[in-house]
Amino acid sequence: MPANLTPQYLRAEEKYKKARDDAEKLEALKEMLALIPKHKGTEKLQADIKRKIANLRESLKSKKNIKRSDLSRIPKEGAARISLVGFPNSGKSSFLNLVTKAKSKVAPFPFSTRVPEVGMMNWGGIQFQIIDLPPLSTEYVEPFVFNLIRSSDFLLIFVDLSTLAPMEDIEVLCDILKDKKILLKKEDVQEFGDNFLYIKSLFLLNKVDIEEGEESAEVVEEFFRESFEFYRISLHEFKIDYKEFIGKRIFESLDLIRVFTKEPGRKLVESDPPFVLKRGDNVGDLCLKIHKEIFEKFKFARVWGNPPYDGIKVTKDFLLEDGMIVEIHI
Ligand SMILES: Nc1nc2c(ncn2[C@@H]2O[C@H](COP(=O)(O)OP(=O)(O)OP(=O)(O)O)[C@@H](O)[C@H]2O)c(=O)[nH]1
Ligand SMILES: [Mg+2]
After folding, report:
1. Residue 73: phi, psi to the nearest 5?
2. Which atom of ligand 1 lies nearest, measured to the CA of 158?
3. Is the CB of 111 within 6 Å of ligand 1?
4. pTM of the entire structure?
5. H or E, element range at 144
6. Which of 37, 132, 120 is nearest to 84 (CA)?
7. Which CATH number fits domain 80-253: 3.40.50.300, 3.40.50.150, 3.40.50.740, 1.10.10.10?
8. Is the N or the C terminus of the chain less surrounded, counting Cβ atoms within 10 Å?
């Protein structure tokens, strides 16, 4: 049976042949399907168009998924990666904007953050990478959110004191993470086993400015006293002390130390950022951090710092402490 294709259909088919990408092809195919004369003679052709549409939709969907999962590929920068985790509206984006130069969208409605936003927070001369994440939810949460949480050295957990039940929120939040094999309670590690990841965290009880905010914070803290560390904040009445406290807690719980280096015979350049090392690292570790060649050519170092070291001569084994100044001789 003749197909009796119309000029309009043939034009749509031409569009399909000339389409530059899958999206254009899909548009043209949909047009072709709408314009094709519907009778027995075109049944095979109709089926063919429908199959092509289905295949293209599938391929476009998987391309879109790959793109979303790419969102977790954020290169690590600074001394540590800290992710902001919490339910919608708890203040994560407000926090990022207050402690870094980033400009994440803040809104009174939930789910305003859809993709991760990154900023660098300066604390004590070092930089922490802060990632503002889309909120957690009992509904679907995109996998990149958990991938970014897993790749973090520390989590700031935001608790909204203005919700009906902040304590329940905390329980649910922990369950959502546990479901993804992420633990916030150290004591849970033994119970759940090795394929769970424990990540250090600080719980920020936000919005203490609201009526009875302090009282609510008190109750939450009392209830979870054994399990988590809390800190009360109001991002509407932000204080620089918050940043100081939070930065120090992160720094200390990650067992980091800052070590300054100076050139032999020269004064310390105050503006030079310190090297960030782990507690327990020695002068040899510092050399390796600077360059392998420095480690290999190392003769001795001089160290200033507490307990009163006034340029004492040391070897690679010398244990470093936070704030020490080191002069390496090669
Ligand atoms: N009263 C009060 N409101 C706050 C405080 N911090 C944030 N808010 C408000 O809470 C709302 C949500 O703030 P966001 O910073 O967008 O919260 P979020 O956690 O990023 O929200 P999502 O992106 O949806 O996950 C905004 O209207 C803020 O102005 C606070 O300390 N006190
Ligand atoms: Mg947000």
Report:
1. -85, 70
2. 19
3. yes
4. 0.80
5. helix 143-150
6. 132
7. 3.40.50.300
8. N
